[in-house]
Amino acid sequence: MAVIRLTKSFTFEAAHALDGYDGKCRHIHGHSYRLSVTVKGCPRTDENDPKCGMTLDFGELKRIVNEEIVERFDHSLVVHRADASDDEWLRPLALRFGNVVETPYRPTCENMLADFASRLQARMPLGVMLHSLKMYETATSCAEWYADDNR
After folding, report:
1. Which residues of the chain have pLDDT under 50?
2. In this structure, are residues 12 and 73 in contact, taking their beta carbons and an 8 Å threshold?
């Protein structure tokens, strides 16, 4: 049976700040992220299976990515929570604006992709593997993650 790769694209808006960075990105700013998720596997062959001929239903892939990434990060402020002293400035932001996502890492495009890969790999159904992620932070800048590079 042929191995097939499927790709679905997603968009979400989020702001972040790279605390400690030595350039403009240390300030709070936003991006229109474009994320492409590619999975691979063999299409189902059981003629009695309503998903026969599919590697993974695109609707199922959409549900997984939306639950793990889009619904969490869309219209959020993503910040690195270094320690408990961060409450001094994080708490007022969260109370005022609501959707503040705290990460254990500096929220660069690269670190976010590694986090997203971990989340999605844990949700892949039997016989389907996460192959790659590609995320554009701006129209001309992106980062990529490949499963083969991370074994």
Report:
1. none
2. yes
